[in-house]
Amino acid sequence: MDKFLKRKHDSCTDSASTNTSNVNDDTFNDENKIKKVNRQYCNDYLNFGFTYVDENDCQIPLCVLKPYTIAESLILPACSEIVQIMFGDDAKKEIMKIPHSDDTIKNRIIHMSDDIEKTVTNKLTTNKLYFALQIDESTDISGIAHVLGFVRFIDENKIVNQFLCCKQLTERTTGQNVFDSISSYLDKFNITWDQCVGICTDGAPSMVGSIKGFTTLAKKKNPNIISTHCFLHRESLISKTLPITLKPVLDKIVSMVNYIKSRPLQSRLFKKLCESMEAQHVCLLLHCEVRWLSRGKVLNRILELKNELLMFFSKRR
User: Fold this and answer.
1) Structural domain tally of the chain?
2) Confidence label for 24 from pLDDT (cuts 50, 70 and 90)
């Protein structure tokens, strides 16, 4: 993980300054070529709770969800060691007094969550801002249904996208149940349906049903609401009926990915090959029909590693 945080990406670093007059252009360009290093992300970093996001073609470290005990097992021990080296044992004793139990971390996370909710709802209530909703219903691995709400509004000439709520559906997942759940949440913070100008959902009957769908019930509260269909769902439906010229290509890609991902030995060999070629990535992504948004990411990764794949399969003819 240290290498990932310390190594510099060529697109993230500025060019060296040229204020030394006795350095000619050829020497300067040669030095720049030597300094450029492609930083690679490794999947093993997930064991330490880190992944990355792309910003301007630069891999930025991002901490992901970890147990509350991470403060006791990783963060505080690391901080205490740093403080001890830099300031001595007395400073280490002081930093160890910081409350870091799992209950304390949990309470602080809940407090931050409540603060975000309060900030968003206060803006919508106090300023009577118009907003748009994106609603989706999903079932977790334990079989419990949840309705997720995202809100978009304009605040100080800036478009703000924010997670609004996650409400559990204890009984059915009909349009009426979804509407009652969202409506009760809005009523709790004195947010009216008159402020809602748009709703985006998928094409499920519980969402777009003409009689008891969520959007239909919402329009009864505010007829001026504009309902839209999530374009990603339509994109997925279109991809189900690929043209004859494209389907064999996708099938071939899936077989290539499965050949490597389903065999640990081949995965290790492919990773080693990517590392030796200093590729941007060292592994392929596995397409899952349930998570259909993964299809685009799989194809992008194939395109980025096309040279490595060509060499890998050429050696196995």
Assistant:
1) 4
2) very low
